[in-house]
TrEMBL record, chain A:
Domain ABC transporter: 6-257
Superkingdom: Bacteria
UniProt-listed Pfam families: ABC_tran
Protein name stated in the entry: ABC transporter ATP-binding protein
One annotated GO molecular function: ATP binding
Automatic annotation (TrEMBL), chain B:
Principal location: membrane
Protein name: ABC transporter ATP-binding protein
Protein's organism: Allomesorhizobium camelthorni
Biological process terms in GO annotation: peptide transport; transmembrane transport
Pfam families according to UniProt: ABC_tran, oligo_HPY
Length: 289, 354
């Protein structure tokens, strides 16, 4: 790992709380390091429950908040040194976000295509005549077309369509890195896996690296190449996704894995309930852990 | 497999919903517009049973539970059908306000998705208990609080939470208090609306266990609504699948997961990601339909891999293919089998389940 795409070294973000006398600092992210290579696009999953610092980490990678300590480098350039409109736009062209709830990411009173056009014009620098073609191309990469989206308001699209539109918008400027913060948790069950499979296709066909932030171990297992598991701001375990999730070592990783609800023991409780309602048998809880 | 007499016997039915239609009816300048969010749903929930209701957004599941809880405000209107609870001698939506508040919490309680909606943010948890439970428990205050503390201890909650404000507690803790509130009067029937959706995986599991324990302890019946099939697998005794305002399949949970019959159910189960499984997941084409203009015939036909001509014209009735398994699909229902195809073969044809 040379980390020539993205390189994090001991990244820490601390917040102060309390008044003058009882001042305490709290590390939301505490000494996180990892690296992504430009030559090998991958899906890198960051897993943890709420409060583990995964969203703060995403905001630091997107340069929306500055790290308190440590360094984040994108293509060798420290994010802290990005100053001025031109440099900032150049960074935004290459690193794009996808947010959790597409209904919150888009203004409900504005048409969705407006966001596509604005990104194409301002970030990608596309001329007025080319805008439609560029937007349509981006939408086709996610299985939509401009005809389906043009003039629509967010409520006129399904959650899956809107999240695809958000991904298409992120692709317009041809980014090398996408930071997706819980991108499927608000999407309907019948459409969720199509978004997850889309990430795989983006990696394989467009060579985009994706930082995939989630609390869902099952989808992380499904698509990611490497993962890190975070607890209270610290990385407790990391490595190849399959190796880590098949055989977690750290107690917290084991706890997370044991908490995943498996569809495979469907109805086991129903049988337990049958026993429980029969007065002749002692109630037993046969739920497997 | 399951010897409990419920759902089929009439004596032990706690909730009997027949041909329920609840529409959002809007009138603008003389023209009337209807959104058929609950369209002809019939189901029964037995005593001591957790009935799971699954469906994605805009499938009508929230409208359904609003209707059976008699939280009906215009434009939502009950157009037809009946909702009978065993503790009531008439349809719940015909009760007046006073009668409703007499049965709410005592007989019928509710666990919400966001517990902030139940707990008043500017009052201590203790006052929420006084507001909700005291009028129904008919106890002097001291004995009332002794009962509350005993109940909290049974649910492994420290009595100290009574003096906390909701914002001082974590989401999981608040959800546990909402469960304690909903079960403290030992109601006959509990409606749980996505109670774990907002929670983390680790917390979700323990909250589910708590719901299960509380439900068993007070032996009440429950309708548990969530879109997450993995949650249903771990809590529901029986499962009903809703699609676009209709019930499309219903069976004991193990049966639904073992042999789903409706193509939509098959898709929901086949597309569940599992640790240890790397096979590519197929997605359905299209999106859930708008309830204002539902598709003709079977509402699933535009997305169905098995769609036939008949599916576009007539909507399939929910029929029993087995005493405890009902399904609404032309491809599996014995009445209109076009080519003698029955469940298993139709399932293989979709290729969704190996």
């Amino acid at each position: 790992m040379t980390g020539d795409l993205l390189n994090l070294e001991g990244v820490t973000k601390s917040y102060a709380s309390g008044g003058l006398l009882a001042r305490r600092t709290f590390n939301a992210v505490d000494g996180v390091s990892f690296a992504l290579d430009a030559s090998r696009p991958e899906i890198f999953a960051i897993i943890g429950e709420s409060g583990s610092g995964k969203t703060t980490l995403a905001r630091m990678i997107l340069n929306m908040v500055a790290a308190s300590a440590g360094a984040i480098r994108f293509r060798g350039k420290a994010l802290a040194t990005i100053r001025g409109r031109r440099a900032r736009l150049d960074f935004m062209r290459q690193v794009q976000p996808i947010f959790q709830n597409p209904y919150e990411a888009f203004n409900p009173l504005k048409r969705v295509d407006r966001y596509l056009y604005a990104t194409a014009r301002r970030l990608a620098g596309v001329g007025r005549k080319e805008v439609d073609r560029v937007c349509d191309e981006a939408l086709r990469k996610v299985g939509l077309s401009l005809a389906e989206v043009r003039g629509r308001f967010p409520h006129e699209l399904s959650g899956g369509q809107l999240q695809r539109t958000a991904i298409a918008r992120a692709l317009i400027s041809g980014p090398a890195l996408l930071v997706a913060d819980e991108p499927v948790s608000m999407v309907d069950a019948s459409l969720r896996m199509s978004i997850v499979e889309l990430f795989k296709a983006l990696r394989d066909e467009l060579g985009v690296s994706i930082v995939y932030i989630t609390h869902d171990l099952a989808t992380a297992y499904h698509i990611s190449d490497r993962i890190i598991i975070m607890q209270k701001g610290r990385v407790v375990e990391g490595g190849d996704a399959r190796t880590v999730l098949d055989n977690p070592q750290h107690p917290y990783s084991k706890l997370l894995k044991s908490a995943v609800l498996s569809p495979d023991n469907a109805g086991i409780d129903a049988q337990a309930a049958t026993h429980a309602s029969d007065p002749n048998t002692v109630p037993v809880n046969v739920r497997s852990v | 497999m399951n010897a409990r007499p419920h759902a089929d016997g009439s004596a032990d039915v706690m909730l009997d919903v027949k041909n329920l239609r609840a529409y959002y009816v809007m009138k603008y300048f003389g023209t009337q517009r209807e959104v058929r969010a609950v369209d002809d749903i019939s189901l029964r929930v037995g005593r001591n049973e957790i009935y799971g209701l699954a469906g994605e957004s805009s499938s009508g599941k929230t409208t359904f539970i609003k209707t059976i809880a008699a939280a009906i405000r215009p434009p939502l209107t009950v157009v037809g059908g009946s909702i009978r609870y065993s503790f009531l001698d008439r349809d719940i939506y015909r009760l007046d306000r006073a009668a409703l508040s007499a049965i709410r919490w005592r007989h019928l309680s509710y666990i919400p998705q966001g517990s902030m909606n139940v707990l008043n943010p500017v009052r201590r948890v203790r006052e929420s208990f006084i507001d909700f439970a005291l009028p129904h428990m008919d106890l002097p205050k001291q004995r009332f609080f002794a009962a509350i503390v005993a109940h909290l201890e049974r649910l492994q909650l420290a009595p100290g939470v009574l003096d906390a404000y909701p914002h001082e507690l974590s989401g999981g803790m608040r959800q546990r208090i909402a469960i304690a509130l909903a079960t403290v009067c030992r109601p006959d029937f509990i409606i749980a609306d996505e109670p774990t959706t907002a929670l983390d995986v680790v917390v979700q599991k323990s909250v589910l266990e708590l719901i299960r324990e509380a439900q068993r302890e007070i032996a009440s019946s429950m309708i548990f609504v969530t879109h997450d099939m993995a949650v249903h697998a771990n809590i529901s005794d029986r499962l009903g699948i809703m699609y676009a305002g209709r019930l499309v399949e219903e069976a004991p949970t193990a049966e639904i997961f073992r042999s789903p019959k409706h193509p939509y159910t098959q898709h929901l189960i086949a597309s569940l990601p599992r640790i240890g499984d790397l096979s590519a997941k197929r997605a359905l084409t299209g999106a859930p339909p708008s309830l204002a203009e539902p598709p003709s015939g079977c509402r699933f036909h535009p997305r169905c891999p098995l769609a036939m001509d008949i599916c576009r014209e007539t909507h399939p009735e929910l029929v029993s293919i087995d005493p405890r398994h009902r399904v609404a699909c032309h491809a599996v229902s014995p009445a209109v089998r076009p080519d003698g195809v029955f469940g298993a073969t139709a399932k293989q044809r979709t290729g969704l389940v190996q």
